[in-house]
Amino acid sequence: MRTATYFFIFLNLSLAVFEEPAVYPLPFLVTSVVEVLCLLVFFGRLTHFAKVTHRNVFWKDTKNICIMIAILLSLTDLAVYGVLRIYNVRSIRWSRIVRPIFLINFAESRQIRRAFRSIRNTLPEITYVFLLFMFSLLMFSLMALKLFGERNLQTAEGLPYFRNYLEIVFDLYVLVTTANSPDVMMPAFDFSSWYALFFIAFVIVNTYIFMSLFLAVVYNNYKKHLKVMVGGLNCD
């Protein structure tokens, strides 16, 4: 049962690859039949679980309620989408966002729920580090606007360089990953090599210090909450 449940959960999640807009598009009839089959399996698994569980326990478990609501929403969305498709009316399969609910809420997914809870409990504790990082990014972006905004510099493509604050924020945010390095600094470096000091300081503070601090906080808090879950201090 566990293997079958995981197989149909994986199959249900994989439908996004074949539904419009798709990487490998399949006819709507094929994907809809596969989805209905998966939903029937999920409903049968839930029914089986209800048969071996006390009624009060079953209906008090929010995981079972979430699965039933997800099945109902998926079937409703599939029916509405199919009818609109018959009349050539474009619509969106909004129920795709509920598909991960099946992965998290079935009884076989206890370890996944533990990991999910650990991530959820970790998020509030890394908020302060993230806010500090965003504050640093915004301050460096403001400095870049003051340094380069009035010098009429241009990129290699002939576009304005560091003249719009929001675009500067985005470029420097990408620079934290070093994905656009050193291209993002070359117009300023060509104007004056001393401007390289600004980007060196930015990379040291945000890439090497803040990213390391961010990783350490995430790892330590995630490990702490995962130990609590494994130790059984929180009920499943």
Automatic annotation (TrEMBL):
GO CC annotation terms, alphabetical: membrane
Source organism per UniProt: Chordeiles acutipennis (Lesser nighthawk)
Domain of life: Eukaryota
Subcellular location: Membrane
All copies of domain Ion transport, residue ranges: 6-224
Entry's transmembrane regions: 26-44, 65-84, 126-145, 165-182, 194-219
Position of the signal peptide: 1-16
Record protein name field: TPC2 protein
Classification via InterPro entries: Ion_trans_dom
Gene Ontology molecular function: monoatomic ion channel activity
Membrane topology: Multi-pass membrane protein
Keywords from the UniProt entry: Membrane, Signal, Transmembrane, Transmembrane helix
